[in-house]
C-alpha cells in the first residue's frame, strides 16, 4: 500500500510517502525551532498557527519528492494523539479532507506507537521486544508483543527525560531545544566531575523520575559564586547527561531481566543523544542484549514513522471514521485499532 502520512503533534509539521510500511519515498519535516527558541519551549498557540501555514506546503513537497500524486495514494495515516490538541487538529483535518475528497481509507496512529516501531523501517526486529520511548513529553518502557499490542511496564512520575534536558539547558543559559546543546558540551566534559542524583535508580519498580536531577542542577548553579562557563559548563553538562542516561539504561536493563526480553528498541528524540546511545550499547554488549536505535532522522518527530502501524491497520481492514477527533492524552495500551 502506498501511504501518505501526516504528523503535527507538537512543533514539527511533517508529511511522508511510504510504500508497504517500510520503503520511505519522502519524509519532509518543517521545524518550528526558531519560532519557539526565544521562549525556551513550545508555545501551543504559535505551534498551531505555524502548522496551518506549513501543512499544505509540506504535503505537496512530500508528494513531489516521492514522484507521485494524490491519484497514486492508497491510504492516509495521521497522528491522532497524544500531543497538543490544536497542533494535532491541523494535521488531522488535512488528513480527513484528503481521505474524504479522494475516497481513501484513513487511520489515526498513536504518536509513541510510531516512535517505537520506527526501527522496523530500517531492519527486521522480531517480536516481542522491549521499547524505551524517550522524548520531550514521554519516558515510558513498553513490552511490545506485536503491532497494536503494547503493555506499559514503567513511566515517568514527573518530568520526561526530554523535558529535563530542556529545563537544565535553560538553567545553564543554553539554547532550545536543550538536548542538542547539552550533548555537544557533554562530549568535552568529565561525566564524573559532579555527583548528581539518580532518582529511583535502586527502587525495584520500573518507573522514572527526572525532577530531582533537574532540581539538583538548579541548586548546584545557585551555589556557585559566579557564572558557569568554559570547562566548568562542559563538566556540568557531562555530569547531568551521565546521570540521566544511567537511570534510563539501568531501568531498561531491569525491565529486560524481569521480562526475559533480549531485544531492546530505544526511540524518540532523546534517542539521538550520544551519551545515552553509548551507555546503552555498552550495557547491551555486557548483558548480551540486542539493542536497536532508529537513525536520527527517524528519532525526532516525523511522518514516515507512522507508516509501519498505518500500513498494518489499513491492510488488516481497519478504517477510521471521518469524525475521528484528536486526543491530547491516549495510553498506548488502549490504541484500539
Superfamily at the CATH H level of the largest domain? ATPase, nucleotide binding domain
Order of secondary-structure elements: EEEHHEHEHEEEHHHHEHEHH
Question: Terminal Cα separation, in Å?
Answer: 18 Å
Q: Examine the coordinates and then state which fold CATH places here, giving the name of the CATH topology of the largest domain.
A: Nucleotidyltransferase, domain 5
- Please tell me the total number of domains: 2
**Mind describing the biggest β-sheet?**
5 strands, mixed
**Into which percent range does the helicity of residues fall?**
40-55%
Walk across the major sheet and give the strand order: 3-2-1-4-5
| Secondary structure tally, helices | 11
* CATH class value of the largest domain: Alpha Beta
Strand content: 15-25%
Spatial shape: globular
Class of secondary structure makeup: alpha/beta
In short:
The protein has 337 residues and is an alpha/beta fold.
Describe the structure in your own words.
The protein has 337 residues and is α/β, with parallel strands linked by helices. The chain has 2 domains: 2-116 and 298-334, ATPase, nucleotide binding domain (Nucleotidyltransferase, domain 5); 125-293, Nucleotidyltransferase, domain 5, CATH 3.30.420.40. It is built from 11 helices and 10 strands. The protein has helices at 33-37, 44-66, 85-102, 111-117, 161-171, 178-186, 211-223, 230-259, 274-287, 296-299, 307-315, and strands at residues 2-7, 12-19, 23-31, 75-81, 106-110, 129-134, 139-146, 149-155, 263-267, 290-292. The strands form 2 sheets. It has a 5-stranded mixed sheet, sandwiched between helices. Helix 9 links the parallel strand 9 and strand 10. Helix 5 (161-171) runs antiparallel to helix 8 (230-259). The chain is globular, with a radius of gyration of 20 Å. The two termini are 18 Å apart.
Amino acid at each position: 500500500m502506498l501511504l501518505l502520512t501526516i504528523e503535527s503533534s507538537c512543533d514539527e509539521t511533517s508529511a511522508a510517502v511510504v510504500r508497504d510500511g517500510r520503503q520511505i519515498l519522502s519524509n519532509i519535516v518543517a521545524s518550528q525551532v526558531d519560532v519557539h527558541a526565544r521562549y525556551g519551549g513550545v508555545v501551543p498557540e504559535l505551534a498551531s498557527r505555524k502548522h496551518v501555514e506549513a501543512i499544505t506546503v509540506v504535503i505537496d513537497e512530500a508528494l513531489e519528492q516521492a514522484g507521485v500524486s494524490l491519484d497514486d495514494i492508497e491510504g492516509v495515516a495521521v497522528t491522532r494523539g497524544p500531543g497538543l490538541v490544536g497542533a494535532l487538529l491541523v494535521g488531522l483535518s488535512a488528513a480527513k479532507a484528503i481521505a474524504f475528497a479522494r475516497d481513501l481509507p484513513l487511520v489515526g496512529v498513536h504518536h509513541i506507537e510510531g516512535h517505537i516501531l520506527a526501527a522496523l523501517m530500517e531492519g527486521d526486529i522480531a517480536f516481542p521486544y522491549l521499547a524505551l520511548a524517550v522524548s520531550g513529553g514521554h519516558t515510558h518502557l513498553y513490552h511490545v508483543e506485536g503491532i497494536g499490542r503494547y503493555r506499559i511496564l514503567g513511566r515517568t512520575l514527573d518530568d520526561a527525560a526530554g523535558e529535563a534536558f530542556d529545563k537544565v539547558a535553560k538553567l545553564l543559559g543554553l539554547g532550545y531545544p536543550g538536548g542538542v546543546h547539552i550533548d555537544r558540551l557533554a562530549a568535552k566534559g568529565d561525566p564524573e566531575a559532579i555527583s548528581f542524583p539518580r532518582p529511583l535508580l535502586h527502587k525495584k519498580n520500573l518507573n522514572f523520575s527526572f525532577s530531582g536531577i533537574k532540581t539538583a542542577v538548579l541548586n548546584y548553579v545557585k551555589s556557585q559564586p559566579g557564572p558557569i562557563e568554559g570547562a566548568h559548563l562542559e563538566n556540568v553538562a557531562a555530569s547531568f547527561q551521565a546521570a540521566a542516561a544511567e537511570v534510563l539504561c539501568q531501568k531498561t536493563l531491569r525491565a529486560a531481566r524481569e521480562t526475559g526480553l533480549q531485544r531492546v528498541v530505544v526511540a524518540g528524540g532523546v534517542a539521538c543523544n550520544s551519551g545515552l546511545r553509548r551507555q546503552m550499547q555498552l550495557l547491551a554488549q555486557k548483558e548480551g542484549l540486542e539493542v536497536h536505535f532508529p537513525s536520527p532522522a527517524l528519532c525526532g518527530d516525523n511522518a514516515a514513522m507512522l507508516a509501519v502501524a498505518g500500513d498494518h491497520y489499513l491492510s488488516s481492514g481497519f478504517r477510521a471514521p471521518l469524525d475521528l477527533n484528536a486526543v491530547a492524552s491516549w495510553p498506548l495500551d488502549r490504541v484500539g485499532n
